[in-house]
Each structure stands twice: as C-alpha cells, then as structure tokens.
C-alpha cells in the first residue's frame, strides 16, 4: 500500500519510532523495534515471564548502613506486576 509523506507524518509524528521509518519510493515501511539499552542493562526476564531487578541504595554512604541491611540489598527482587507492561515495551525481544 502506498502512502504519501504527509499522511505518514500525520500518523507517526508523535511516535518514538518516527526517526526509524524508512521510505523507499514513497512506500511505507514499518518502524523498527529497538531495545531500550538502559532497560536491557537493568532488567532480566525470568522463565515465568516476570522481570528481576537489582535493589537500590547500595552505591554510596554505606558506612551508616548495617551489614544485615547491605546483605539483604544484595539480593535481587522482582519487578512489580504494574510495571511489567512498560518493561515489556522497552524490551521487545526479551
């Protein structure tokens, strides 16, 4: 199906994939799916479909935190189910 450039601009001007569109002889190609690299470094998908993440507060000012608290912060935790759809969008190939 052929589209004019103005129709494409109207439809996709607010899309985050606008700059990934390719035009070949006024023929519209679907936008590429790209992995969000920041999210890829922070989240790992589990076998059950959830996502695990590292906990915060373990980078600096560690002297006033107890050993027990730091030990528990080393453990990974699961992402809340409310946030999973956003992470799935950021990691389309996970």
TrEMBL record:
Keywords for this protein: Ribonucleoprotein, Ribosomal protein
GO CC annotation, single: cytosolic large ribosomal subunit
Domain of life: Bacteria
Pfam families tied to this protein: Ribosomal_L35p
One of the GO BP terms on file: translation
An MF annotation (GO) of this entry: structural constituent of ribosome
Annotated signal peptide: none
Keyword Ribonucleoprotein appears in the UniProt entry: yes
Family: Belongs to the bacterial ribosomal protein bL35 family.
PANTHER family: 54S RIBOSOMAL PROTEIN BL35M (PTHR33343), LARGE RIBOSOMAL SUBUNIT PROTEIN BL35M (PTHR33343:SF1)
Entry-linked NCBIfam families: rpmI_bact
Name of the protein described by the UniProt record: Large ribosomal subunit protein bL35
Record organism: Psychromonas ingrahamii (strain DSM 17664 / CCUG 51855 / 37)
């Amino acid at each position: 199906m052929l589209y004019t450039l103005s129709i494409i601009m109207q439809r996709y001007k607010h899309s985050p994939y606008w700059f990934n569109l390719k035009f070949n002889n006024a023929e519209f190609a679907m936008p590429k799916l790209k992995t969000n690299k920041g999210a890829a470094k922070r989240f790992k998908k589990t076998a059950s479909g959830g996502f695990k993440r590292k906990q915060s507060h373990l980078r600096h000012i560690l002297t006033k935190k107890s050993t027990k608290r730091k030990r528990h912060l080393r453990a990974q935790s699961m992402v809340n189910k409310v946030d999973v759809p956003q992470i799935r969008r950021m990691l389309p190939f996970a």
